[in-house]
Amino acid sequence: MSNSPPGTVLPGLRFKQRFPLLSLIIERCVLSIILLFAVSVLIFGGLEALPGDFATTYLGQSATPQAVANIREELGLNRPIVTRYVGWLGNAVRGDFGTSWASKNSVGEQIGKRLGNSLFLAGFAAVISVPLAVCLGMLAVHFRNRTPDKIINVISLAAISLPEFFIGYLLIMFFSVKFGVATFPATVFDGMGFIERLKAIALPTATLVLVVLAHMMRMTRAAILSVMSSAYMETAELKGLSAFRAIVKHAAPNALAPIINVVALNLAYLIVGVVVVEVVFVYPGMGQYMVDAVTVRDMPVVQACGLIFAAVYIFLNMTADILAIVANPRLRHPR
Hints:
Layout: H1 11-18, H2 20-49, H3 54-59, H4 65-75, H5 81-93, H6 107-142, H7 147-161, H8 164-178, H9 194-200, H10 202-228, H11 231-238, H12 243-254, H13 256-281, H14 286-295, H15 299-326, H16 329-332
Helix pairs in contact: 1-2, 2-15, 6-7, 6-10, 6-12, 6-13, 7-10, 8-10, 8-13, 10-12, 10-13, 11-12, 13-14, 13-15, 14-15
């Protein structure tokens, strides 16, 4: 039972009523932090639940029990799991991901180098795929149910149906092996020129673009088509606007919220999806670093990479939610 007098509005509810847009944004941020905390528990607990441990893998089958015990004590594996999790999470929040068990190098320093490479690859793919997807979506709407629209739909369905590793191998076979016009493996290094770096990432970039382009284009087309039957679109056509100009000037801006949402979600997929692409093209990014660490059960590296991938994915999803909220005119201008 509430002790508030009848008709009294609670402070939290009053804040929501006065600032609905800000309250929704705060809710999304809080939920994202809670989700990231839950994911950190799953990452740490899931890796701990795997059979075997690093000490046995590192020392080999001929290791004595005493040697295994010494390694476990040195790495702190004999401490309670809750104590290790709290210590790991506290250090991770401060940006300290510890030392690699296998290489004895700082995980943070290695991730700093690798993360830049992954962001460069994903960012360049986004620069190409986002405007191309929006333009193709509007073009498909303009020629809906006609030949260009059908061709775009068939190609997009084919791209969605193929996994990224298969697309990557096809591109390697044709453009690197058969025609010799592209570089493989996609090797980049410090001091490499910008043009040379772009040439090196041409095939992995094309793979990522083909993977996300189709989905963004189809969602853009669907979002614009959903507003094409609105009264203001009919009014725009009656005023003499051409069909394509009406789409660009009226339909696309009003379909902005779902388009922003799908673009942000696909950008999140780009960051996480680089893992497979980096392995296929032997690209020195976060994905390749994580896979190499998994093979030797280098837990600090796997945990750090998993947490960073999860944080980026959750952040971009949160950004998509916030942008969709901000783009909603009913929340920007409440009555």
